[in-house]
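> run fold Alpha/beta hydrolase
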Amino acid sequence: MVAHLPCRGPAAGPGTVPGNGVGSGFANDLRQARRARSSYRRRTQARVTCPTLVTASRHDGGVAYSHAEDFRDTIPTARLVELSAPSHLFWLGTSRGEAASAVREFLAPS
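> ok
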């Protein structure tokens, strides 16, 4: 299903085009993380104007917590919620409730 979703916006690039193969998004993340792309990535993230919820766990073996901190620091409207998930799969186990609560609170009218 994801392969059929359109890819639009400033972050869309060659590595994020649907149907480009499994793992191409991750490869794109790695390319953008390089020093040469760092300023581009930060400028692009700074252009995000909608409220943004970032969730992360310090126990995630697949994505460093510093990535979430970078989103928080560069997206003007970002809110970072730290989850106690033991892995990247936060929707499994007890951390699922934490994530659901964070989303409910984030979406609640202010």
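The CA atoms of residues 3 and 18 lie 5 Å apart.
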